[in-house]
Amino acid sequence: MNRILQIIGCVAVLLFSANITKAQKAAKDTVLTSAKSIVKDSTYKPAPRKHIPRIATIRSAICPGLGQIYNREYWKLPIVYGALAIPTYTFFYNDHYYKIIKYAYEERFKHAVDTTYVVNESSIDPEVRNLKDLNSLLKYRNSFRRDRDYSIMWFVIVWGLNVVDATVFAHLKEFSVSDNLALKVEPKIMPAGLFALSSGVGFTLSYKNSVKKKVEVR
Length: 218
Fold this sequence. Notes:
Layout: H1 2-17, H2 20-40, H3 53-62, H4 66-70, H5 77-113, H6 134-172, E1 181-191, E2 197-207, E3 213-217
Antiparallel strand pairs: 1-2, 2-3
């Protein structure tokens, strides 16, 4: 189970971080294209927003991967379905052994309570037929049932991450990254009284072709 958690954690990190550079590059290209259009057409008006994050959210919630398709991030589909395949496989694996061990435990328990009860050995799965200790059967049964329930929980979590990923990167499609913005941090000496000075840090936020705004922190 720890190995499964590690795999799902790695997939989540990959899913959320691998596309940041791509999103920033696409946003910069959008800014440059828009700037060129403004130069050519002085009556430029912002185009209506076409990429709607809510659509990506709803589609991913209905079916995993549909939000990524809407965002045109097709390379994420193998990651999404691969991540969902892990808890799906572990669910059926653990559920299979839970059922056969549960039946074997019930048969052994009936015999332990009533010695006249004859255990139907042929109906017990060959993999657990030689396991006759009640405590061991109970331990294995509870273990497989717990792991089966964890598989359901992780399936829901991965599905949720798929929705979050589609929503976040749908918003990033419309996120503007401009080289005109600049933030500068520099030391400052500021008056603290009539004959006193104090040191501090100044933050300068500037935008090209606009007035610089300074914020000073003592």
